[in-house]
Amino acid sequence: MNIEEVASYCKRRGIIFPTSEIYGQVPGFYDYGPVGVELSRNLKNYWWKTFVQDRDDIIGIDGSIITNPLVWKASGHVDSFVDPLTECKKCKKRFRADHIVEEKTGKQTDGLKNEQLSELIINEKIKCPDCKGDLGAVKSFNQMFCTNVGPVEGNIAYLRPETAQSIFADYKSVMDSARVKPPFGIAQIGKAFRNEISPRNFIFRKREFEQMEIEFFTKADKKNDCLDYDKISNLRLKILSGEKQEKGLSDAEEMSIKTAFEKKIFSNKWHAYWTATFYQWFLDLGIDANKLRIRQHMKSELSFYSAGTVDIEYEFPMGFKEVQGIADRTTYDLTQHQNLSKQNLEYFDEETKTKEILYVATEPSLGVERLLLLVLFNGLKEEPERLVLKIHPKIAPYKIAVFPLIKKDLEPKAREVYNLMKEEFSSFYDEAGSIGKRYRRQDEIGTPYCLTVDYDTLKDESVTLRMRDSMKQERIKISELIPKIKEAIKKGLV
Ligand code: GAP
Predict the structure, then answer these.
(1) What class, spelled out in words, does domain 389-491 have in CATH?
(2) How far does the centroid of ligand 1 lie from the alpha carbon of residue 211, in Å?
(3) pLDDT (tens digit, 9 = 90+) per residue, 45-96?
(4) Nearest ligand 1 atom, CA 325
(5) Domain ranges of the chain
(6) Which CATH architecture has domain 82-142?
(7) Which residue among 160, 306, 316, 370 has the greatest number of ligand 1 atoms within 8 angstroms of its CB, and so is best to mutate?
(8) Which of 139, 218, 259, 386 is deepest in the core (most CB within 10 A)?
């Protein structure tokens, strides 16, 4: 399936559709439908459970989207959060210069300066994709959305372009209230806004999206003291180094985390640990390892705050693309906020009686929409008789669908079973159409277990349980359903 087909499937099945479509689409903005909202919440809950609730070294916050605008001055976003823009001299349409150059020439543009992009546009004779007019010199375009707070004109504020800064801006309040010692992380899930010049590829590049981020702090001289490093160091994965890309090569090599660390793919051991941990998390979700790779950023493309970044990329139909960025953010942000706010953001070590700004050894930053898109591309299978979304039961929008074989006579019993299931699992009741059609509808949205209530149910209190992937059916007592399904979800049996 290509990206347009997936977008059309998402609309048809109530997963995602363009926002306020009756008035015409606003590019870069989408809404979740009834199925999509369940799926995205399950992904976020699973992330939160794994990285916050199940760990002793990470605590969570939920910051507001609008902050004091000085946050964005200190973070560098006001001055540096820009994309290269070129305008058609004839039709006045505006485009992302690097994307246009990449599309027309196939050349890698990461890290190129505006002047270099302008030169490429001239030398490669690149014209406006819409009207073939001449394109103007490349300029920087700040991606932050701006708004006005309260009735006073000029009281400007920005919609946050990353959730990370709420963590840094709240750092003092968190440290004053939570008893944490490095190494520890602060996590957050929330909305971020970027006025992308050309949002594209359905939900891959949106203007309003969600991020799941962790800022993981260590003492600066302890960023290689990662107790669990040995547990992940033998994990093998495909890695495309920055050095290879600088030579114009694009083939990833399989190597262990240990070898990659020795080759300086990672900036520190926590950086290696978090990359491996998230890679493993993707595998546990059932993502195909053959479609995943780690790409190290070249020095020229590193964000202004980063001492080293790797991306976890997935092979979408439009090529390998970033799903998660994992950066070593150094002491940059806390130092900047300490300087501008004039508040002391140093950590006082009770044992050594020393003070220091803590070091963000790793920031794993995952976009909810990109994860969702990856889950769809990875799970959607076109089989001869059906389209089926093969996703892990723990993230499935509905765990169970309940059908009466025939509505007349069997509805009350079927509703009784449905109500029982609803207490434990997100469930769906369907009595419309043939059983075959009802199975197909559930297959398409990834429901792992379907229960059919028939005339025998009225006699022996049993139902037919049908598994999504194997399509195997078995008869099971209603009283045994809940433990059986709980076990199947836990083990990923479908
Ligand atoms: N705090 C670091 C940061 O924001 P980033 O690489 O700009 O780093 C992190 O973004 C993640 O957020 C990306 O890997 C991607 O999953 C998601 N993301 C970024 N821009 C996005 C957009 N316009 N639409 C959807 N997701 C986006």
Answers:
(1) alpha beta
(2) 7
(3) 999 999 999 999 999 999 999 999 999 999 999 999 999 999 999 999 999 9
(4) 14
(5) 3-79+144-380, 82-142, 389-491
(6) 2-Layer Sandwich (3.30)
(7) 370
(8) 218
State the residue for tokens 């001869």.
384
Ligand 1 proximity of 392 Cβ (cutoff 6 Å) = no
Pairwise CA distance, residues 22 & 24, whole Å? 6
Determine the topology of domain 3-79+144-380 in CATH: BirA Bifunctional Protein; domain 2 (3.30.930)
Q: Do domains 3-79+144-380 and 389-491 have the same CATH topology?
A: no
Q: What is the DSSP string of 4-52?
A: HHHHHHHHHTTSEEETTGGG---TT-EEE-HHHHHHHHHHHHHHHIIII
Q: Would you place residue 21 in the very low, low, confident or very high pLDDT band (cuts 50, 70, 90)?
A: very high
Ligand 1 in contact with 325 (CB < 6 A)? yes
CA distance 79 to 72: 9
The residue nearest atom 16 of ligand 1, judged by CA position, is 367
- Closest residue by CA, ligand 1 atom 5: 325
Ligand 1 atom closest to Cα of residue 196:
23
Rounded Cα distance, 58 and 113, in Å: 38
